[in-house]
Amino acid sequence: MRRLEAAVFFVLAVVGGSVGSAWYFRQAPVQTDRPAVAAIVAEELAKLPKPAPGVDTTQVKSIVTDMLAAEDARNKQNSVMTVASLDPKLLDPMIDSYLANNPKILQRMNDALDKQNQADADVKNKRLIAANADAIFNDPDKIVIGNPKGDVTLVEMFDYNCSFCRGALPDLATLISEDKNLRVVLKEFPILSAGSVDAARVAVQVAKTNADYWTFHQALFTSRGEVTGDTALDEAKTLGLNPDTLKAGMQAQSVSADLQKSFDLANALSVSGTPTYIIGDKIIPGAVPIDDLRTAIANMRACGSAISCPAKAG
User: Fold this and answer.
1) In angstroms, rounded to a whole number, what is the distance separating the alpha carbons of residues 128 and 260?
2) 30 pLDDT exceeds 80?
3) Which of 150, 175, 228, 301 is most buried by a 10 A CB count?
4) How confident is residue 224, by pLDDT bands cut at 50, 70 and 90?
5) With the CA atoms of 290, 296, 298 and 303 taken in that order, what torsion angle do they form, in degrees rounded to the nearest 10?
6) Residue 217's pLDDT is what?
7) How crowded is residue 81: how many other Cβ atoms within 10 Å of its Cβ?
């Protein structure tokens, strides 16, 4: 029983006897705030016959007043102790000591934070991909390799001077070779140098011809040194294209517009590096192990989502 309830019970026992107090508690729950206690005491004392044999009402009021004052003092002390316990000067050393003696907590916190951040990023990326789906997967000027009618589409945004893109090229070739139902969309995203931009301007034009773009693409990534516009023109020439015509068209408005679409898309998706892969509802930044891409492709086939559907075992 709380202290204020005890005070009420005491008063009722004094003025009405133990039977009367028990009856009161059964009939009406006691309101245990300070004004309610004082009101109950006043009400019960007012009911006493005058004079009340054996009952000193002044003494009863004094006892209850003392009990309420003591309760106020305890509440005030508890409040002060609570504030003191939150004082950074007291708390900070305690926290530091606890974490120093339990360092694995920091790792668990970091892991939990990473997990939450990834979950938040997945939700955000899913929304951004849905809002830009046509630009990502169905751009009429897209470059498609693999199976144009494949049931799963993997998009790669790349730069010809990106060393990570160069390193990831064999994995992309392997995926295309082993998965005859994979559609790959390549998006020029030249962000590393002026040479990258010039090479992309040539590549956009090559993609609009009947030349083998995949062969051209692989040749640029396996060339030595920086990839420039001249590198791209030389490779285009080996495919039977006229380098002078391509060079003259490098600054064409249509070429600039194609590249601008990639930059606009990257801005919409908050993509800032290469390679960046997009598949289903997932954005995969950086060169990742080929098995990660296989898993995303398997998830897409299993349930149409690269994030929420686990790949089938085996």
Assistant:
1) 18
2) no
3) 228
4) very high
5) 180
6) 98
7) 10
Burial 37-48 (b: 16+ CB within 10 A, else e): beebbeebbeee
- What's phi and psi for 188, nearest 5 deg? -65, 125
- Residue-wise pLDDT for 128-168, tens only, equals 999 999 999 999 999 999 999 999 999 999 999 999 999 99
0.90 cut: is pTM over it?
no
Strand-by-strand arrangement of the 182-188 sheet: 143-146, 182-188, 152-158, 276-279, 282-285
For residues 44 and 11, the answer to whether their CB atoms sit within 8 Å is yes
Residues in the chain: 314
Q: Which of 283, 186, 212, 198 is nearest to 249 (CA)?
A: 198
Structure tokens at 200: 């992309």
The angle that helices 213-221 and 163-178 make with each other, rounded to 10 degrees, is 140
CB 255 within 8 A of CB 261: no
State how far the Cα of 8 lies from the Cα of 13, in Å rounded to an integer.
Answer: 9
CB 161 within 8 A of CB 226: yes
Q: Is the bond preceding residue 35 a cis peptide, omega within 30 degrees?
A: no
CATH number listed for the domain at residues 127-303: 3.40.30.10
Cis preceding linkage at 243, omega within 30: no
pLDDT of the residue at 50: 54
Say which residue the tokens 């019960």 belong to. Answer: 44
CA distance readout (Å), 31 to 2, 7, 25, 37, 60: 11, 11, 11, 7, 19
Burial class (CB in 10 A: 0-12, 13-18, 19+), 232: buried
**Would you say residue 200 has pLDDT above 50?**
yes
- Give the residue extent of every domain in the chain: 3-85, 127-303
Judge whether 206 and 216 are in contact, CB under 8 Å: yes
More confident residue, 50 or 314: 50
* DSSP state at residue 36: H
